[in-house]
Amino acid sequence: MSGLSAGYGRIPVLADVSLEVAAKEAVGILGHNGMGKTTLLRTLVGQLPATAGQVEWAGADITGLPSHRRARLGLGYVPQGREIFPGLSVRDNLRMGFVGRGAEERVDAILETFPRLVPLIDRRGGALSGGEQQLLAIARCLAGNPRLILFDEPTEGIQPSIIEELVGVLQRLHRTRGLTIVLVEQNLEFIAELATRVLLIQKGAILRELQPGELRQADVLSEFIGVDR
């Protein structure tokens, strides 16, 4: 993407953001709340229109495409808060990811990657723990066979044991499927485990690029994350 700007009504949030993500790369995006991280992901996936600039995917301009067209091209999105269907079973949530693709039998193949969901297959999504719901949201996204997945705060409200499981699942998907990952996250350890480089965003603009090992530097912690070492 290049020169991307977006916002809500007359309120600008993103300001002339340019970013290139290579195939099979894992890029982290870090910054305070309210700095434009979610807006960036929503604009990339087509849920929010760009007010300026361009979004390119596999060499094609997709700036004007709706989100369902982008999904068919291989863009997946796991939003903050998961947004599963709480009244549907785990199996039916996964089936929703296959709608229009005639591949209901692929649910079992998806479950091989998420064995924790197997004994929960007939349980309502709303009855799962936060971590189990996050695994379900990722599994449902994978049902669309994406080439790029955008993650928005996947560790929010999740117990440490499932965070460790998430790291393993995403590392395995990145390695075996060659998935490209863009990860918005506040958990420094999580983002350092997964990202090959990390971008710091402030007031809707990308200010710095860091290597994962630099995330514990005092200036990064105080200026961009708001905590002290």
Descriptive report:
This protein has a six-stranded mixed beta sheet with strand order 7-8-9-3-10-11, with helices on both faces. A three-stranded antiparallel beta sheet has the order 2-1-4, covered by helices on one side. Strands 5-6 form a two-stranded antiparallel sheet. The model has no long low-confidence stretch (mean pLDDT 88). It is globular, with a radius of gyration of 17 Å. The protein has a domain at 1-68 and 186-229: P-loop containing nucleotide triphosphate hydrolases (Rossmann fold). The chain has eight helices and eleven strands. It starts with a strand and ends with a helix. A hairpin with a 2-residue loop joins strand 1 and strand 2 (11-17). Helix 3 (90-96) packs parallel to helix 5 (130-142). With 229 residues, the protein is α/β, with parallel strands linked by helices.
How are the SSEs ordered, and which strands pair?
Layout: E1 2-8, E2 11-17, E3 26-30, H1 37-45, E4 52-54, E5 56-57, E6 60-61, H2 67-72, E7 75-78, H3 90-96, H4 106-113, H5 130-142, E8 148-152, H6 160-176, E9 180-184, H7 188-194, E10 197-202, E11 205-210, H8 218-225
Parallel strand pairs: 3-9, 3-10, 7-8, 8-9
Antiparallel strand pairs: 1-2, 1-4, 5-6, 10-11
Helix pairs in contact: 3-5
